[in-house]
Amino acid sequence: MVTTSTNTRHTVVGVFDGPNHAEQALNGLKERGFTPAQVSVVAQDKRDVQQMAEGSEMAGGGEGALKGAATGGLLGGMGGLLVGLAAMVVPGIGHIVGAGIIATTLAGAGIGAVAGGLVGALTHLGVDAQDAREYEGHVKQGSILLTAHADSAAQEQQARAVFTSVSGGSVRSYNRPA
């Protein structure tokens, strides 16, 4: 059951086989009013993130910063959707490129301080541990992980609809107290 309490955090997670579908999902989220602070991207291949940066309407005016961060492997901020792009090594996965809340959590905690790396960051967002391990496996296999942090149950439903409409896999919602 989906709650509409303002004291509930809604997180929608999905995996995408390539940057084209992930880019379509990002554009769909932007069209529905999602802000940069509400979206996270994690990919193992920095070329996937670079391709999304070049093609996504979400990249806005900061596209150059995203491309530079993706190709240079540096922390980067931008005015578009993909905020806080970081290249990092996650235990058990290897090199990943990420943006948003997940990347901030991983980078800010110095990776090792986050129990379980990506799994720990996802569980911190309310994803159950078994699902978090599944999502980590998808990233290890080269899929792109997107999360949308919705402000309401209605926005959560919009994110789910966007993810499934562009071939997102393992699309699930997680609700937890704020």
Bin the helical content.
40-55%
Give the tally of structural domains.
1
Instruction: Name the overall outline.
Output: globular
Q: How confident is the prediction overall: mean pLDDT?
A: 72
Low-confidence stretches: 1-5, 60-81, 111-115
Number of helices in the DSSP assignment: 7
Q: What's the N-to-C terminus distance?
A: 17 Å
Please give the radius of gyration in angstroms: 15 Å
Number of strands: 6
SSE series: EHEHHEEHHHEHE
Question: Largest sheet, if any?
Answer: 6 strands, antiparallel
Measured by DSSP, the beta-strand proportion falls in: 15-25%
Structural class based on helices, strands and sheet pairing: alpha+beta
Largest sheet strand order: 3-4-2-5-1-6
Q: Describe it for me?
A:
41% of the residues lie in helices and 23% in strands. By secondary structure, the protein is an alpha+beta fold. The protein has one domain. Strands 3-4-2-5-1-6 form a six-stranded antiparallel sheet, with helices on both faces. Helix 1 runs antiparallel to helix 7. The radius of gyration is 15 Å and the shape is globular. Mean pLDDT is 72; it is low at 1-5, 60-81 and 111-115.
In short:
It is built from seven helices and six strands, in the order E-H-E-H-H-E-E-H-H-H-E-H-E.
